[in-house]
Here is the input.
Amino acid sequence: MSKHGRVLVAMSGGIDSTVAAMLLHEEGYEVVGITMKTWDYANSGGSKKETGCCSLDSINDAREVAVQMGFHHFIIDIREEFGDYVIDNFVEEYMAGRTPNPCVLCNTHIKWSALLKRADAMDCEFIATGHYAVIKELEGRRYISKGKDERKDQSYVLWGLSQECLERSRFPLGGFSKDEIRKMALIVATKSCRKKRRVMRSVLCPTMTTAAF
Here is the structure.
């Protein structure tokens, strides 16, 4: 039984979402990881090499973190919803001479909807991301505010979230600076490397000592 309930964590495979999952895991939440595939670089007319949060490498990185920490990890494909709403709107606004903000649209209409839908299906009370922001409350209403590190502020891309979304959202990085998160990520990476070395030693060189590595 977890201390704080079950939380679905959006994991891109990067530093921020990895540490977010780690912090929630250490706080006593029952963590479930999920990676959302939003874009297909290979079929978009761009580079054949996928990069960023939608690449196979990033998905594998997120899954590896989940395995290392001992919680489940799932992948969901939201390319159709993302393309129909976010990309189409971006093109329309750009062609009309306006400056679109696809992150706001994605968070408000696509990402949180997808996360909450899967959270309900997996009996998760909460959802969490690696955004640098905090949730505050005033006169019974929750609102998004800047986190500790103003240089990494991401509250502006979350302003469209509803009260229901805010009530169920967790932003564990809001109380930290980016430098502090990097140090935490290094600890995770070090543990992962040590584990891989132990596996290599036991499989390839069972008679050698750990010091040899």
